[in-house]
């Protein structure tokens, strides 16, 4: 089942069930707590927070999402994109747990002839929050699944709040078992790929109070009107229904891998590290294009910096696949062709997108050229001294001044018959990271209310703003 069809069926199911269809919001919303929209509920926040009356009791959307916090997972797990589409259904004081579970169950296991996804009920594993007996019993009744298949979980995965006083509630995550060839048995385990989370149901029922030193935001009451917020990952469902290994091989992402194979002359599936690079390229090309599509340009700050990092990581990965010529405009075209049926603005606005990626790639390639000269000098010096190890200080200088990723230095050093003093390099990186953190804390972020931004980033433990200091730590 194609990705477009998965989205279409979702919308049709919920529109038929009385939900108002709401288009995706831009990835960039005027929300100081978020760099990018990262969930379907974001555009409905005022209704959930009681700041505005909901214009409809039920809504459904397919929301563009970017989660840069997942960047290190990309290409290495089977299920994390930096850009993905979250299908959601929302109830504002209308139906609650029973309705949400029933809808999800019916759509997931409903027969394909009748508009469902046709997943085998024997492979579905729902989880509920440990104290949520109500959800547990509803799952038993609605799905008929045996008790041991409905697992109780702690707050980390199965309780949701916004990190601020306000609504919160238990969640129910729905997993699909891909079978014994994907890992050990026994039910969903975080960070394993046998059981794939496809859908998350949030039951907003509690009011959470001010932050306490002991409990994050203790429950201080019940919401007068209970809400439903759900999110189903379209790419994950596509991966499972298309019978491919991971989300990067689904119909809308894979074409970029094919293009990268043409550029590199290497074959996807032949070498593990190369495969990760192919997947990173395909994932980042899509998120890069979608982010530019919503009006961001590469820069050294905020969203523009995240974008820059994504684009440069593509170029770097292509280089590690042996490609020397410019790749970004070509990859952007492939993304446009895959995504424009859902997002026609990508086609009408393509010249702007092309120009942005082209300029960024040229700038980065210049950096790489300058860095290569420094590298050659360092190699000559090392060899003249009869040493076999390139000093960590040099690797750090290349990284720090020329934006030269450490993996590139390692590879080029190996080609020159040298090793790199990685311990020294890591120590210098650590030092710099500590400095950058201290610096970021003492600095306000440009305009707007940077303080909120900062707080949220700190809380999330994100390092997006620490310049290039964390690039080297990251996998290729
Ligand atoms: P995971 O535990 O696998 O990281 P999550 O619990 O963080 O997922 P949610 O915040 O519950 O994800 O988001 C709702 C749904 O969106 C998930 O059930 C999943 O199907 C999808 N999803 C979340 N993150 C990603 C991602 N990085 N790439 C693709 N799909 C995603
Ligand atoms: Mg996650
Ligand atoms: Mg989860
Ligand atoms: Mg979840």
What does this structure look like?
By secondary structure, the chain is an alpha/beta fold. The chain is built from 16 helices and 11 strands. The strands form 2 sheets. Strands 1, 2, 3, 4, 5, 6, 7, 8 and 9 form a 9-stranded mixed sheet that branches. The chain has a two-stranded parallel ribbon with strand order 10-11. Helix 4 links the parallel strand 4 (124-129) and strand 5. The protein starts with a helix and ends in a 16-residue tail after the last helix. Mean pLDDT is 90; it is low at 444-476. The protein binds adenosine-5'-triphosphate (ATP) and magnesium ion (MG) (3 copies). Keywords: Aminoacyl-tRNA synthetase, ATP-binding, Coiled coil, Cytoplasm, Ligase, Metal-binding, Nucleotide-binding, Protein biosynthesis, RNA-binding, tRNA-binding, Zinc.
